[in-house]
Amino acid sequence: MTTNPYLDAGPYFVYEGTLDGEWRPRSFSSSEDQPQYVHHLTPKPEPLPPPDMSHSVPHHKGIKQRCIKFSVAAVISLLLLLLVALILLGYYLSSTCIHGVACGDGSCVWASQWCDGVQDCPGGQDEASCVRLYGPSFLLQIYCSESKSWRTVCSHGWTEQQGKRSRFPLPLGTYFKSDQQKTESRDGFLKVKPGSGPDTPILKQLVRSDSCPNNSVVTLRCIDCGSLVNSSRALGVQPASLETSPWQVSLQVEGSHRCGGAIITPYWIVTAAHCVAGDSNPEDWTVYAGIMDSLGTLFNPARSVSRIVVHKDYSSLTLRNDIALMKLSNPLDFTASGNIAPVCLPNVELNISVPQRCWTSGFQIIDSGSLHLKEAEVSLVDRADCNTSYNGRITEDMLCAGATEAGVDVCHGDSGGPLVSQKAGVWWLIGDSSWGDQCTVRNKPGVYGNVTYFLSWIYRHMRVGVNSCYIILKTCITPFASTVALHFYVTIKDAS
Fold it and tell me: 54: Cβ–Cβ under 8 A, 6 or more apart, which residues?
């Protein structure tokens, strides 16, 4: 194979011209035997990703969309705030005491002003229900607005004078005696503030305390009630005596016995609403106390009536709220006759429950038309069991009491008559005779108005005369002295 003599022949020379016109050789090695210019192909570029459409939107258009979204959110927030404001405004307009306690006459006071010893409500409602008697021992308790609790009054520093002054906030407006006993109080006590003046309101004489020396606390009796000379009774229906039913009265219209009732104060009688709802004119009624039969009316004075209060929610269809009050024109004198005495209204937490033994009494009219006072022992019946007998007609304002043996109830004898029970040696009025179907049958108990349920209602209406006198005494300094003196006289006369 013929080879090219110019290839691989070792070093070779090439003459190249110089500036001086001479030729000089230039040597090359085989490694330099390469072209002086090599043409390189540019590699094919990779395809570009598709353009991002989000960046294709002009910048000013994105700002406009964000402004629109912000405006919509702002409008929605404003509408929600407006809705909340309207709701709060409606609530405020519907309740004028959103930040206080309602007085009951359209005005309101701050919660701290309730039971502070100063009358702030125009009608004195803020100071009217601040004192109560608790349990069968008549513990004196006062509501403390700061702790929002009822506190028992410590006997340390307590005097008879304080006992007499403390009767003003109580509904009876009378005073019998003050005593003391030992008891525990988990809610703390109230103590008499040292140096309290006799004219200082009783609520301002007391300060809170977590302890009481010897745990000796105050008991208070506003009225000598619930005491019997002879409390022994036999079983079954029997003639009653004035020694066992001294609070029983006969309510009469035109000389005819209409209903029974129970004495609770020298002025006030508790009876049933259905007895007087059809004839609530006080002038039509007379009251006889201390009688056992028709002959008793010949030897006892007829008491006139000045006022009749029927529960405003009484229903003649359902017999709900079947309770009424009668106020006598002149007070009964309990000291002049041993045959007349009041029964006690139940205190808070008296805890008379099923199957407590009770006594009911009333006047029965026999064939000759003459009256005879009868009484019988009954036992409280559970409301659920009673509703089984009366198809759900028994409500919380009613009590049921059944005969301990068939045929011994007196429920047909006397509407409005008292249902009483003894606890801690005291007789308490727990019901007024209302209605009953075949109540002399064992499974058909008699139905009574629940006096405990109506306590606030009773106290509120008895308090009218007492509190008006108390209020006038605090505001009698006025340019119209003669007018105030007249009102003062009338109020004192009406106070009970």
Answer: none
Among the listed residues 178, 274, 389, 414, the single catalytic one is: 274
Residue-level length of the chain: 496
Assess contact for 266 and 330: CB atoms under 8 A.
no
pLDDT confidence bin for 20, thresholds 50/70/90: low
Please name the residue that has the structure tokens 């008379």: 352
Q: Of the listed 126, 322, 409, 414, which one is catalytic?
A: 322
Run of H or E including 13: strand 12-17
pLDDT bracket for residue 5 (50, 70, 90): very low
Ranges assigned E (strand) in 29-112 = 101-102, 108-109
470 pLDDT higher than 70: no
Mean pLDDT along residues 77-92: 80
Please say if the pLDDT value at position 312 is more than 50. yes
Average pLDDT of the chain, as a whole number: 78
Structural domains in the chain, CATH included, are 129-221 (3.10.250.10), 238-453 (2.40.10.10), 464-494 (no CATH)
Q: Which two tokens stand for residue 401?
A: 């009491």
* Under 8 Å between Cβ of 260 and 272: no
- Measured CA to CA, the distance from residue 378 to residue 421 in angstroms comes to 10
Do 262 and 418 form a contact (C-beta atoms < 8 A)? yes
Whether residue 329 lies in the annotated active site: no
Q: How confident is the model at residue 293 (pLDDT cuts 50, 70, 90)?
A: confident
What does 105-151 look like in DSSP terms, one character per residue?
A: SS-EE-GGGTTSSS--STTSHHHHTSEEEETTTTEEEEEETTTTEEE
The mean pLDDT of 309-313, rounded to a whole number, is: 96
Q: Which helix (H) or strand (E) is 400 found in, with range? A: strand 398-403
How many angstroms separate the CA atoms of 202 and 393, rounded? Answer: 45
Place of tokens 């089984």: 388
Q: How far are the Cα atoms of 39, 245, 406, 412, 445 from residue 441, in angstroms, in the given order? A: 130, 24, 5, 12, 7
| pLDDT higher at 59 or 87 | 87
Ranges of beta strands (E only) in 158-255 are: 177-182, 189-192, 206-209, 216-221, 238-239, 248-253
Spot the catalytic one: 166, 178, 415, 496. Answer: 415
Asked about 382 being catalytic, the answer comes back as no
* 274 belongs to the catalytic site: yes
Q: Kindly report the CA angle at 90 between 88 and 92, in degrees rounded to 5? A: 70
